[in-house]
Amino acid sequence: MDLNNIINNVIEYKYLSTKKDLVHIGYGIDNNYVRCAATSMVSFYLNNKNRNFSFYIITNNLSNENKDKFRSLAEKYKFNVFIYEIRQDFFLYITTKGLLVNSNVF
Questions:
Q1: What's the pLDDT band for 104 if we cut at 50, 70, 90?
Q2: Considering the entire predicted model, what is its pTM?
Q3: Is residue 83 within 8 Å of 57, Cβ to Cβ?
């Protein structure tokens, strides 16, 4: 597999006014974990108001409704959210010693 072709699409919601004191945080999620990831993002923001945040989401098949929720959060709290939509077949090349389903990855 060509690792350069894993990402299908990148969605950027950029609302930061400065990169000073920037913290980068990543999530690997599916539609079932959006509420938890969003809660975590807001918690980071509310408990660290002296910092700026860029959040990175790796996913495949995130609904448009959930993408819009992340956009709304980024706009409201003035942080960045980058959504990386990866190819589903990428997971076929992960070597495991047992059963692995997509939800295990996210």
A1: low
A2: 0.85
A3: yes
Q: Could you tell me which residue, 56 or 93, shows the higher pLDDT?
A: 56
**Closest alpha carbon to 81 in 58, 60, 49:** 58
Three-class secondary structure assignment of 34-59: HHHHHHHHHHHHHCCCCCEEEEEEEE
Mean residue pLDDT across the chain = 89
Q: For residue 51, is pLDDT > 60?
A: yes
Sign of CA dihedral 44, 65, 78, 54: positive
Look up residue 70 and give its two tokens.
Answer: 């992340």
CB contact at 8 A, 53 and 19: no
Token pair in block for residue 2: 């060509």
Handedness of CA 41, 11, 16, 56 (dihedral sign): positive
